[in-house]
Amino acid sequence: MAEIVGGAAMSHVPAIGVAIDSGKTQDAYWQPVFRGFEFSRRWLAALKPDIAIVVYNDHASAFSLDIIPTFAIGCADSFAPADEGWGPRSVPAIEGHPDLAGHLARELVLASFDMTIVNKMDVDHGLTVPLNLMCGSPRAWPFKVVPLCVNVVHFPPPTGWRCFDLGKAIRKAVASYSSSERIVVFGTGGMSHQLQGPRAGLINSGFDKRFLDCIANDPESLARIPHLDYIREAGSEAVELVMWLVMRGALAERTTEIHRFYHVPVSNTALGHIVLEDAR
Ligand code: DHB
Ligand code: FE
């Protein structure tokens, strides 16, 4: 059967993609950011997963306000980088895994998660920036990707509990997938940030660090955080952190923290990153 061999969460700040695309990763501002992922890139290269399930949110790139799926799963053969206003990023096409995606869609719907099946979808910075952070800029991505989108841009987003439970259902579904493929799960977004209004630029490092402290072995306390607390404490876009809980739910009850990185500010946001494995 297929197996989940690790999990990671990371912010997906679009300015990171711009820094990569314009050759600025060694600038004084950016160097510490990319250094924070050096260990993670070695970890992932050594792990050699076959597939990554990338839990991210679309920022009105693939989905407009016409249709807003709460949970969507990308079942296509491949996914092109989205044009977010400046032309598509020149990163490799993302190869999908329609067979695993189809299995997940079936198992998750049967487990009462009403997934939207997406057979054609461009993917934005929410997915491509995490791939760069974890893999650098290779000619081709080293694994196939099942994109799993969560609506966190339009009220009402799903609760933290629902996301945590979705992760657990993904773990079960992977365990019933007859293949020897090894799978990592990424949860993207966060940490504290607010991009508009009088509180634009809000960063709450205390909130972020407590979140990082709890994700490995007290995720239930995080799953209980109501939307209003994210907004009040950590800014309107901090609710992206519910996607970390999908990743966490897909791991074992006890996990080992392999790596942690926190850096402020990156663009207007706090960048957080964690690497977890099931506890042995
Ligand atoms: C920004 C956008 C995001 O989607 C995000 O998660 C963080 C930052 C931005 O525009 O700076
Ligand atoms: Fe975002």
Overview of this structure, please?
This protein is 34% helix and 22% strand. The chain is α/β, with parallel strands linked by helices. It has a single domain, classed as LigB-like (Protocatechuate 4,5-dioxygenase, Chain B). A hairpin with a 2-residue loop joins strand 9 (255-266) and strand 10 (269-278). The longest helix is centred in the middle third of the chain and has 16 residues, at 160-175. It is globular. The two termini are 19 Å apart. The mean pLDDT is 98.
Tally of separate domains:
1
Basic shape: globular
Task: Provide the residue-averaged pLDDT.
Answer: 98
Ligand types: 3,4-dihydroxybenzoic acid, fe (iii) ion
β content, as a range?
Answer: 15-25%
CATH architecture: 3-Layer(aba) Sandwich
CATH hierarchy, class: Alpha Beta
> In terms of quaternary structure, what is this?
single chain
At the fourth level of CATH, the homologous superfamily is LigB-like
Number of strands: 10
List the uncertain runs. none
